[in-house]
Write a structure and sequence with these properties.
Strand content of chain A: 5-15%
Number of helices of chain A: 17
Structural class of chain A: alpha/beta
Oligomer: homodimer
Number of strands of chain A: 12
CATH superfamily of one domain in chain A: Enolase-like C-terminal domain
Helix content of chain A: 40-55%
EC number (chains A, B): 4.2.1.68
CATH architecture of one domain in chain A: Alpha-Beta Barrel
Order of helices and strands of chain A: EEEHHHHHHHHHEHEHEHEHEHEHHEEEH
Enzyme class (chains A, B): lyase
Protein name (chains A, B): L-fuconate dehydratase
Low-confidence stretches of chain A: none
Organism (chains A, B): Jiangella anatolica
Shape of chain A: globular
Largest interface: A-B, 61 and 61 residues
Mean pLDDT of chain A: 96
Keywords (chains A, B): Lyase, Magnesium, Metal-binding
Distance between the termini of chain A: 42 Å
Radius of gyration of chain A: 20 Å
Chain lengths: ~425, ~425
């Protein structure tokens, strides 16, 4: 029997604002950051690593929220925790006092996500398999048990979820083999940051095509004339067959979004991402209806499964962009994958930042192997930033993610990076 | 010219769980708490006081979030801040890095609410008037300038808001005088906590009627048979004319809510509060349609104005229950009052906890004097807990709130209470 002996936290920040990497219409100067958690045990086995991605200021608040969970974890029996991850999730999310701080949204909910993801990293390492495979090897019943169906049953019952998973089960082994052989499709956002000039945009677009990508993404929403010019440059380089998604990062109101997107429509955007507030389900539905056949994508700032449920019920989004660290970890993302499958909407995860590619690839691959069973219109964001800090960095080749092979959730940051990027005392910040 | 010299914070907790005061179906053991902020200046004038209400664990996280705002406030020019409160709000809410932690929801958003409310307390004290009067005396143009209309304009434009306020302006002086003379209608939740036995429920219901209340509220959602029995007891004591609201505190899914409320309908509940997740706009709309003529009330956990907008657009709630410390302070609540007025839905604020009655009464009174212009179906929650800790406690007489007379927002806690209830080192907790 082993116990959790410590929950160690780190306020890690990377000075990305110095290069305008990651700049968009709402986030002009992000310093990519991780509120990072390590769950340690009293046996000789591995530790569990998880984090919340933030963009700088407030990362300390996020760390404080993770620390508030310490009494619920330290001293707990590791085998018991990992034997019933659905119950572990419910205990954390439904704590009768902490719940008030959301409920189920914002800093406290994301903090739970970090420790839930650290528990899954620990589970996968102890099982000696990558997380995507650990999840895919669960039975349909075990997968359903991960999910809290409270507030979901008007859209998806446990019985319906079970039916979906059982229907997907026969092909799992074949799809897992294909995933290992061929990888998972990726698109790149690297060319399209708003802070880049036209020459850099054009150069990076060409490099993306040369690297084998069949979809890129451009940030929009700062200035309409700029957006039209930048989209024209990209479309000229890409030709008609490479998909170009655009991303407004919540910049617009409903009517403004419709007007703006109509001006961009001649350049055939594959989707329009975050056209307005992530909370505005009815607004997204109105936008989606008005701009069709251009489609809406959202999710990276959608607070929880109840919001995703409604986006799907209202046909407000045509792509579900899960994020590995916005909701309460793997379990809640499994709920969202099941909802998306029920509504027949493809999941195209948000990534980038620091570690989001590493973390979310497992969920996209699990979705393909065990839930949706398809890669049609599924594609995983890729940004080539900060992977060098990870023990098991993503491997993207010829426009596709290779399936992770090492045990764990790929969320572990290397010790020298933990030391150097610790804010404010690490060498990078001193 | 004076400056903000300090933002002092306090983790204050009150051991209310020892008495089961405040117990309901989702919150069985709250320790009412305040993440408390004092803005100090370098002149001889007053300080500004504000807080976030929480229910215990995690209050330290909420304090950390308030502290993250310190660099944006300390050193700022007081007159400039108070001269343009709309701009001050936007600077805090739209900080390009902190925004990621919500956006506009949860711990970080509530922290902004605490300092925004502290600024309003400071403004009202410096003006020598209670907050409700300071707000009511603003011109329609000044009130519109308090509000950030981003994401609202599909439901309410600044021009429409101005029109609403101008229509209400001629009667302001008369309504203010009537408010001072007659007070504002209150209902009491004191009889109905789930932890109380039937005898205590009956006794407190009788006491509420004797005290002049014409509406009470009962917690429900734990056990249906218990709810039916308790509602029958209360209805027998109240007779047909006293209104009895019921409050499920988010306990149900959509279908469960409909089934449960139909069983309670014979006892004529005035409203059903928080039947399901506060995030579930479509769920509330479905419930409201199914249980009519019983009406839905919600708001105390609704994260921001974009969510309120949709609840109103979807006709999902028939009463808007603003909370003084859930959203980003006075400015955002003004936006919500304007939305409610546009949709013709009465505002019945959430109160109770510690200090929520003190804080929110000003907003209900401002709504009556300057926005909705009506008390029809408007009523303000009252719970007789912890008022003795406040410098300007609420005064409820014959079932009505008396209008505050002292300068400020009534949010100031007495120094001995700050010292005794500080967690974990105050005398109450040692």
């Amino acid at each position: 029997m082993s116990q959790i002996t410590a929950l160690d936290t780190f306020d890690l920040r990377f000075p990305t604002s110095r290069m305008l990497d990651g700049s968009d219409a709402m986030n002009p100067d992000p310093d990519y950051s991780a509120a990072y958690a390590i769950l340690r045990t009293d046996d000789d086995g591995p530790d569990g690593h998880g984090f919340v991605f933030t963009i700088g200021r407030g990362n300390d608040v996020q760390v404080a929220a993770i620390e508030a969970l310490r009494p619920m974890l330290v001293g707990a029996d590791v085998e018991a925790l990992l034997a019933d991850p659905g119950e572990a999730w419910r205990r954390l999310v439904h704590d009768s006092q902490l719940r008030w701080l959301g409920p189920e949204k914002g800093v406290m909910h994301m903090a739970i996500g970090a420790v839930v993801n650290a528990l899954w990293d620990l589970a996968a390492k102890r099982a000696g398999v990558p997380l995507w495979r650990l999840l895919s090897d669960l039975s349909p019943e075990q997968i359903v048990d991960l999910v809290d169906f409270r507030y979901l049953e008007d859209a998806l019952t446990p019985a319906e979820a079970l039916e979906l998973l059982r229907a997907a089960a026969p092909g799992k082994a074949e799809r897992a083999a294909r995933l290992v052989a061929d990888g998972f499709p990726a698109y790149t956002t690297s060319p399209g940051w708003l802070g880049y000039d036209d020459a850099k945009l054009a150069r990076l677009t060409r490099e993306a095509l040369d690297a084998g990508f069949t979809q890129i993404k451009l940030k929009v929403g700062g200035d309409l004339d700029d957006d039209v010019r930048r989209l024209r440059i990209a479309r000229e380089i890409c030709g008609p067959d490479v998909r170009i998604a655009v991303d407004a990062n919540q910049r617009w109101g409903v009517d403004e979004a419709v007007r703006w997107v109509k001006e961009l429509a001649p350049f055939d955007p594959w989707w329009v991402e975050e056209p307005t507030s992530p909370d505005d389900i009815l607004g997204h539905a109105a936008i989606a209806e008005a701009i069709a056949p251009v489609r809406v994508a959202t999710g990276e700032h959608v607070a929880n499964r109840v919001m995703f449920k409604q986006l799907l019920q209202a046909r407000a989004t045509q792509f579900v962009q899960i994020d590995a660290t916005r909701v309460a970890g793997v379990n809640e993302n499994v709920a969202i994958l099941l909802l998306a499958a029920k509504f027949g909407v493809p999941v195209c995860p948000h990534a980038g930042g620091v570690g989001l590619c590493e973390a979310v690839q497992h969920l996209a691959m699990f979705d393909y192997v065990a839930v949706s069973g398809s890669t049609e219109d599924r594609i995983l964001e890729y940004v080539d930033h900060l992977h060098e800090h990870f023990a098991d960095p993503v491997r993207v080749e010829n426009g596709r993610y290779r399936a992770p092979e090492l045990p764990g959730a790929s969320t572990e940051i290397l010790v020298p990076s933990l030391v150097a990027h610790r804010y404010p005392d690490g060498s990078v910040w001193r």
